[in-house]
Amino acid sequence: MTLTKLDLSGLKCPLPALMTRKALKGLVAGDRLEVTSTDPLSVIDIPAMILQTGDRIDATDRTADSAIFLIEKCNR
Predict the structure, then answer these.
(1) Which residues in 38-50 are b (16+ Cβ under 10 Å) and which e?
(2) Tens digit of pLDDT per residue, the chain (76 long)?
(3) CA-CA-CA-CA torsion for 30, 52, 6, 33, nearest 10 degrees?
(4) What CA–CA distance (Å, rounded) separates 33 from 56?
(5) Number of domains in the chain
(6) Does residue 71 fall inside a structural domain?
(7) 3-state class of 68 per DSSP?
(8) Segments in 1-76 forming alpha helices (H)
(9) Is the pTM of this model over 0.90?
C-alpha cells in the first residue's frame, strides 16, 4: 500500500478530475491518492468521478481556497 500525492493547485475544471482519474489508473487496489485542488468545482467533479470508477473517498478536507481528497483505489 502506497500513498501518492497529487497537487493540482491552479488547474481549472475539468483538469483536476481528469488528472485524478489518470493517476488512479496507475495504482493498485489498496493504494491511496491524496489530491489537492484549488478549483471550486472539484468538490463536485472529483466525488462524481469516483462514483464512476468504483474507488472510495476516505476523507475530504476543505479550506476557504482548496480541497484535499484522500482516495483509496479499490479492486475493480
Answers:
(1) bbeebbebbeebb
(2) 899 999 999 999 999 999 999 999 999 999 999 999 999 999 999 999 999 999 999 999 999 999 999 999 997 6
(3) -10
(4) 10
(5) 1
(6) no
(7) strand
(8) 15-25, 42-53
(9) yes
**Which among 74, 23, 76, 75 has a CA at the least distance from the CA of 46?**
23
Residue 60 structural domain: 3-66
Which three-class secondary structure state does DSSP give residue 12?
coil
Burial of residue 73 (number of CB atoms within 10 Å: 0-12, 13-18, 19+): buried
> Is 59 part of a structural domain of the chain?
yes
Residue for cell digits 471550486?
A: 40
Catalytic residues: 13
**Whole-number Å distance between alpha carbons of 32 and 58:** 9
Q: Is residue 44 part of a domain?
A: yes
Is residue 46 a part of any domain in this protein? yes
